Amino acid sequence: MGKIQLVIEDVDDVIEQVYRRFGVRRVIRSLLRAMTRRRHYNNALANLSDRMLRDVGMPLKEKRFPVHPLDVILPPF
Questions:
Q1: What is d(CA 9, CA 5) in angstroms, rounded to the nearest whole number?
Q2: Which of 1, 20, 66, 77 is the most buried (most CB within 10 A)?
Q3: In sequence order, which residues have a C-beta less than 8 Å from that of residue 61 and are 6 or more positions away?
Q4: Range of 33's domain?
């Protein structure tokens, strides 16, 4: 499939050009594929441990420690 070059001046015009060239079904199918592909990417990283995130060069998860209800009222000594 050939490369497509678009100069974006107005989003509505670009959407109209893409719709006219490829049709409604192909545009909607491509949009749904792009949305699910991005969701799977985020879900795949959420399940990795800190060590594996570090191995692939991603930022580590923030560690959240449970807060005891009395720590809010009385500071720990």
A1: 13
A2: 20
A3: 50, 53
A4: 9-42
Number of domains in the chain: 1
Distances (CA, A) of 24 to 35, 37, 41, 70: 17, 20, 26, 59
Q: Is residue 33 part of a domain?
A: yes
pLDDT digits (tens, 9 = 90+) for 5-38: 656 678 888 888 888 999 999 999 998 888 887 6
pLDDT digits (tens, 9 = 90+) for 39-50: 655 567 777 888
On whether the CB atoms of residues 6 and 14 are closer than 8 A, the answer is yes
The dihedral built from the CA positions of residue 64, 62, 41 and 33, taken in this order, carries a sign that is positive
Per the CB < 8 A criterion, the answer to whether 58 and 45 are in contact is: yes
Q: Is residue 50 part of a domain?
A: no
